[in-house]
Amino acid sequence: MHTHARLGVANPDLSQSVRAVSATAAAPQTTDGVLTALATGDSGLTEEEHARRARVFGANAIRAHRARIGPVVARQLRSPLLLLLAVTAAASFFLGERTDAVVIGVIVAMSVGLGTVNEFRAEKAAEALHDRIRHRVVVLRDGQARSIDLAELVPGDIVELRPGELVPADLRLLSTTGLQCDESVLTGESEPVRKSTDPVPEGTPVAELTSCALMGTVVAAGTGRGVVTATGGDTEFGRIAVGLARREPETEFQAGLRKFSMLLVRVAATLTIGIFVVNLMLHRPILDALMFSLAIAVGISPQLLPAVVSTSLAAGSRLLAQRKVLVKRLVCIEDLGDIEVLFTDKTGTLTEGRIEFMRTIAADAADGDVTELGLICTDGLIENGRLAGGDALDTALWAAPVAPLGAIEGYSRLATLPFDHRRRMVSVLADSPVRGRTIITKGAPEAVLACCENVPDSAARALDAEFAAGHRVVAVATRSVPGQTTLTTADETGLRLAGILVFLDPPKSSAREAISRLAALGIAVKVITGDHPTVAARVCEQLGLPAGGTLSGADLDRLTDAELTEALSTTTVFARIDPEQKARIVRAQRCLGVDVAYLGDGVNDALALHAADVGISVDAATDVAKDAADVVLLEKDLQVLADGVTQGRRVFANTMKYVLMGTSSNFGNMFSAAGASAFLPFLPMLPSQILLNNLLYDSSQLAIPTDNVDEEQLARPSRWDLRLIQRFMLVFGPISSVFDFATFGIMLWVFHAGEALFHTGWFVESLATQTLVLFVIRTHRTPFFRSHPSVALLTAALAAVGIGALLPVTPLAGSLGFQPLPGGFFVVLIGMILVYLALAEAAKHWFFRTAPAVPAARERRTDHRLRRRAARFITRTHPAMGTSVRPAQAFGP
């Protein structure tokens, strides 16, 4: 944050001017006075002056996301589990158990190292994603309009404002055309504030400023131009933001991990206390009993769960980025996989988005006159005979070869009523030598026709024919108003229909396949559009979207929330929908207990993006849409979105492999250790051996994020189900224990093992069985025959088993308390492994056959979703703020 005090030293004259203007924000002075105070000319700053001010004021940023190794290491060291291990290692060292101390120290170092490496990689991935989501702003430099990165703004820059854009800094307005700003982020008021250049009294509260546009607010309608008076942390928005907590509310994925961790804590606490009490009752040394109990607690905990999750998310983000999907928070990758209903706009998603002007159909004027009127009637900026900042339809009209651009040179626009989504029209007051003073209105046909008198029947028939063909249509109407100098919505009456403009936006060739792919993923696609119902329905029919009903905005207004919720199951197309209605539809769908995604790119989509479980936008979207979204697509294509959904489900599936396998195997081994300690004259395994076993096993599982996932696991969303995890643990844990106890019997009665040989035999057997059973648990299919693991996972698992088998014959064996095993043991071991895997395979098929069905409507996430939406703008999405993503912060026990 750059403070005025520091600036005063670097450049006292300029900083005093900035302080004077920005302190009152709406200083009662002329716009020329503001420009003079900021040492800015009408043509904006020069490049040299901008460079000088950039050195003084710094970047227009409140904070930026940067991956730093220090905070990552600090978060790893905050783990209570690691603190417990460190204390145990220190106690062992001072009490003479040097080997245990060294082993535990190595485990702590490797755990911290692996966690740090993987989380830092995840942070770097998040940083790369944020660097790819850029925000641009149009400024005046040396008299020329140019697009620059938002962070490059400095006080004194002259900025152009367009609908849908975020106000990039605190501005004193120089000119406005119907400008309205949504300031709810600062004031809480939902109604846009109309802006003007009229000065207001000094001391006016921020909420009542009309001559200023403040950073973080949204241009809801109209256009404007303003001079930057404050940037970064010196803005009103910045002063609020820097005082807020930076940690984001957790996602469902994080909440599931947290609940799972608490489950493990309860199980570990019960086992630890029970084992400690039993060992004391058997009169074993307190230190040995304590160390063994602590080792059991550590052994049942999947120590590398944060690393596995971070690796999965980081790998997922890289793959998604390659597929042109950018996820703002890594943990939102899993949210993508939960999608069950997708609401999407039509233009550019289901259609090519390359709108072409086809023809005009006149009501009672020459065709050329209708096109000419359409060119003049725009809320875009016309400079030097060219259109700047117009919408897609205006751009297509101006680019048409038949556009009579020369004919509009005689027109002068005196006033403009910008387009808004309630009126669905734009009007201009224009003057020309031929027509005189005229109101020209252009917009949705039904809205324009409602303002017209004596509409011919032929016009209505022409409209119906164009709609049925799937064409986009805009109506143009006029009214002569001699001598009028102002324009209000009350003037949009008594119009005469001039004709209609017909545009073509053909269906996208890849959309049909994408819709089929999404359907195969269990995702219902529904269309929300501002277009005519017949046009939208025709496009859906051409793309093979499953037939369903159509609701218009007018229909929606007549429905109660309960009736809307009931109608959702039979409705595929929502047409002529305004922004509030979009959000209402999304909220109603979420009330049915399904995860909802919304894909949109306009300012009118922001409310719906906030209301959805997963907000999705595109890189070419308006700033406000990109900032309201969780996910940004670099290409507006449903195929790209399908890739994102698949990757989200793959991340969750691989995480669950580790969870199910780790809890069942660890629980079984630790239960075996607890039982054996009750009747053996010695500990069944030394604490250091338990920890080493757990480290080798967990290290092999770091390859799980690379594993292949079966198609049926990707076909439907999966969610955390603690009851299933508990049931899995209670079924597969005892199976593991049966073979552990068989090993105990074989070691005692067949090989007549002493303490060291017993420890060695069980170490090798438990490591082999709990590692290799992954290949059974990782799939619902028959392993290796119908489901193949990744090469990395197969290699890592076999390497861990091999290292465990070789350790007893290495020079480290004595220090670790091992001794070489007889050859006959390995023959028995191979037989036990094969029987164990076969039994586990049979139990797996029985388990999933009898597992209760997951309820269709899961517990709603309303509370944390609302908290996340409320915090989103401040903590993450403003382009000048960046974020602080901590993908593994809330993970693990």
Explain what the structure shows.
Pfam families: Cation_ATPase_C, Cation_ATPase_N, E1-E2_ATPase, Hydrolase. This is Magnesium-transporting ATPase, P-type 1. Keywords: ATP-binding, Cell inner membrane, Cell membrane, Magnesium, Membrane, Nucleotide-binding, Phosphoprotein, Translocase, Transmembrane, Transmembrane helix. The protein has 893 residues and is α+β, with helices and mostly antiparallel strands. The chain folds into four domains: 4-64 and 133-241, Calcium-transporting ATPase, cytoplasmic transduction domain A, CATH 2.70.150; 79-128 and 249-322 and 644-850, Calcium-transporting ATPase, transmembrane domain (Up-down Bundle), CATH 1.20.1110; 327-351 and 508-636, 3-Layer(aba) Sandwich (Rossmann fold); 356-504, Calcium-transporting ATPase, cytoplasmic domain N. An eight-stranded mixed β-sheet has the order 8-23-22-21-9-18-20-19, with helices on both faces. Strands 1, 2, 3, 4, 5, 6 and 7 form a seven-stranded antiparallel β-sheet that branches. Strands 10-17-16-15-14-13 form a six-stranded antiparallel β-sheet. Helix 23 (606-611) links the parallel strand 21 (596-599) and strand 22. Helix 7 (98-132) packs parallel to helix 12 and helix 28 runs antiparallel to helix 29 (755-772). The longest helix has 42 residues, at 638-679. It is elongated, with a radius of gyration of 34 Å.
